[in-house]
Task: inverse folding
């Protein structure tokens, strides 16, 4: 019989209101803390979802342009920007260090292309400096991607325990009131137990969405970091093929 569905919903809503009205001051403080924790966790999830979606879209645009033109420094010399794409941060760091090793300056001016055309190739030791710069950029970008994830992890692990604390505290006070009154009956205990359980329910309502969001974000960010490592290796290979002199003369000159 589907008819009682809406009355049951109202009864459930009334149960929540009833529990809140009968909750004690410690219980309400815990509920307030869980409310702010929910706001912070949702704000982090929404912000991270938007940042990651934008980063993935800009990454596809950057890689399409980079792989279409087999000149690895073309995007850098044309001053094309892909802000919001972590892969572009790695590319920019690598190009900046490479041009410094080639020309002694990373500044892109009117004479940059002419100086680049007549520049001598760098040695493998200099290329290792370029690779180190890209690895450092990968690490810094990974830290930016993982920032604020501690808030979600805290909501996942802390909210249920905070709710459980409110429940245990409320039940303890309920039994204390029953003992003081000297009479144990359902009508006397129900309001206190109901008020105590609302903190556990609220804690779970905070933790469950945060858990799903955290798992998705962690998996996606880890995949993006792997992609950054792969691109760093791809870019280093392009640089080595075009700008590195592996002859013995280059190694002696560097020494």
Result:
């Amino acid at each position: 019989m589907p008819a009682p569905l809406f009355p049951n919903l109202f009864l459930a809503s009334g149960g929540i209101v009833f529990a809140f009205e009968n909750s004690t001051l410690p219980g309400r403080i815990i509920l307030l803390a869980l409310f702010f924790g929910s706001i912070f966790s949702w704000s982090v999830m929404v912000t991270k979802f938007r940042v990651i979606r934008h980063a993935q879209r800009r990454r596809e645009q950057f890689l399409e342009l980079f792989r279409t033109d087999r000149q690895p420094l073309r995007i850098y010399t044309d001053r094309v920007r892909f802000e919001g794409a972590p892969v572009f941060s790695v590319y920019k760091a690598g190009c900046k260090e490479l041009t410094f090793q080639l020309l002694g300056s990373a500044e892109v001016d009117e004479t940059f292309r002419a100086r680049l055309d007549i520049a001598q190739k760098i040695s493998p030791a200099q290329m290792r400096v370029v690779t180190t710069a890209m690895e450092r950029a990968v690490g810094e970008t990974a830290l930016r991607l993982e920032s604020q994830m501690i808030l979600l992890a805290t909501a996942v692990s802390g909210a249920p325990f905070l709710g459980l604390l409110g429940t245990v505290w409320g039940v303890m006070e309920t039994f204390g009131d029953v003992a003081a009154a000297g009479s144990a009956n359902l009508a006397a205990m129900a309001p206190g137990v109901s008020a105590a359980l609302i903190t556990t329910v609220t804690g779970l309502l905070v933790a469950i969405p945060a858990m799903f969001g955290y798992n998705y974000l962690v998996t996606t960010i880890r995949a993006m970091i792997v992609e950054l490592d792969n691109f760093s290796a791809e870019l280093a290979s392009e640089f080595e093929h075009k700008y590195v002199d592996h002859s013995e003369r280059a190694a002696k000159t560097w020494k």
Remarks:
- The CA atoms of residues 177 and 212 lie 39 Å apart.
